[in-house]
Amino acid sequence: MGKTVMIVDDSASIRQVVGMTLRGAGYTVIEASDGRDALSKLSGGKVNLVISDVNMPGMDGISFLKEFKARPECRFTPVIMLTTEAGDAKKSAGKEAGAKAWIVKPFQPNQMLDAVAKLMGP
Please, what is the angle between helix 109-120 and helix 12-24, to 10°? Predict the structure, then answer.
C-alpha cells in the first residue's frame, strides 16, 4: 500500500502537474479544489502528506491548514505549501499554522519529490 498525498489547489493544471509528478513516483493522489473541498475529502482514509496552495477562493491555504491541524488525526501530518507567494509574512503565517515546507511556483518536480520524501520518511 503506497503513501497517499492530497493536493489542494484551485488550478486544475497545477493539480494535474503535481499529480503526475507524484503518481510517477508511486504515490496515491487525492485532489481537492480548495480548503473546504479538501476537508470534506479527508473523512475517508489516512493522508500521509498534503500539498496546498495558499491563495484559493472559498477557503485559502492558511485557513485550511489551521482547520486541518486542529483535527487530532491530522496534527502530525506534514503539509507543504505550494504557492506563487514568496513573501516572508505569508511564509511565517504558514509556519505558524503548521506548514513544514514552502515551495514557490513554478516548481521543479525533483525539488518537490525530494521535499515529499524527506517529510514523509521511509
Answer: 60
The reported pLDDT for the residue numbered 1 is: 56
C-alpha cell at 104: 514557490
Q: How many domains does the chain have?
A: 1
pLDDT, one tens digit per residue, over 21-47 is 999 999 999 999 999 999 999 876 789
> Which grid coordinates belong to 78?
506534514
Range of the domain at 104: 4-120
Please give the order of strands across the beta sheet that includes 49-52. 28-32, 4-8, 49-52, 79-83, 101-104
For the whole model, what pTM was predicted?
A: 0.93
| Residue type, position 90, single letter | K
Asked if residues 88 and 107 have their Cβ atoms less than 8 Å apart, the reply is no
List, in sequence order, every residue forming a beta bridge with 51; answer none if it has no partner. Answer: 7, 80
* Beta bridge partners of residue 102, listed in sequence order: 81
- Output the domain CATH number for residue 100: 3.40.50.2300
